[in-house]
Fold:
Amino acid sequence: MDHASPLAAEARPPAGRGSLHRFANPGRFLRLSGRVLPWLTGAALLALAIGLPWALLFSPPDWQQGETVRILYVHVPMAWLAMGGYLALAIGSATALVWRHPLADLFCRELSPVGATVTALCLATGSLWGKPMWGTWWVWDARLTSVLVLFFLWLGHAALVRAFDDAERGARMGAILALIGVVNLPVVKFSVDWWNTLHQPASLTRLNAPALHVDILYPLLVCALGFTLAFAAVVLARTRAAVMERRVRALQVAAARRAEMPTGDRMAGSVG
Amino acid sequence: MSRKRRRLWVLLLCGLGLGSATALTLTAFQDNLVFFLSPSDVVAQGAPAPERAFRLGGLVEAGSLERTTAPDGRPAARFRVTDGAHTIEVTYTGVLPDLFREGQGVVTLGRLGPDGLFRASEVLARHDETYMPPEVADALKRAGHWDPAQGAAPPAGSWNRLDPARMPGRDGS
Structure:
């Protein structure tokens, strides 16, 4: 991407320089996220505790799809998270490449397995929905195929950042892959408008005229909020764990070095 | 600072190049990316080589569906697929999907014979993007605002806030 640059010097930008650097400080991130995480988790559980029973038990069936329509309440939030999460991965990757924030690298590394999981759930629920309604588990239309490509991008990123002995090199390769994959996002979103597909167009294009009855729309929105908060909480917890893991490793390395050094000095001294 | 700015510019230029390359590729392969052809496409470009299988999609025309039984006892159907401008007659032997009905979207895979009859080997239902409770659909039908056999539901703004609990008895409103 770039010529050799003094990485070590740039990896730790002086604190307080620029607005972004302030939040990239791992210590401050741990303090802030530690305070936010319990609230985020609580809000996610609350939204899901309201949204899921509302959607799965108390909302009406669809006039032609019947009870099968309830797959919507999981399928659509997973599809939104698969795409929104990928946008977050792209922003994190651009931040990591341009500003070289170690925290952005860790965030991307911990995000992609979660993103792959929601995309897999989106594909699986879609397939389960397609069989009874369309009459097929899978077709190679533009929407389904582009979401499958999105799934492979998530998996590829998760594998690539872990495939290098040098973590920094892996993170850089992963960031480049993630940014190349961004071209797939508009294809996923607009595939149903650009080409004939078996998948129907979006129901929720404008919030003032959704093609869903409000009795179906409101539980969907609460479920989507709950799943989004849960997604954010899981990614935040994973990123925190990764930061702490890295700290522990740094401390262990430092301790091992300290344990070795004095004996080396003493031996050198005794010989001399 | 200048190194970061340069990296940002390199990134933006790469993105621009990649984006235009993708857009050009997708435009070039436009014809291969469609999942099905509409009857108008078939009329305009002619069927893709005689006896070559392709997918035909559209709405099942109102009043065109005839269900019969094939000599071997399997269910069979004959219907017309329309996109408003043109229609093509389709025959199919086998079980139709649950959502199949007049006015519903379908995607059929098969071959167009020289007699203009499309012999399908697979029929998939293609539903639209509207979702509504049965009471609301019934109310729209009773009020004469919507006949599902004729195609898509009326604009969503006219029904997505109707209160299903107050539907029966207030049909004409």
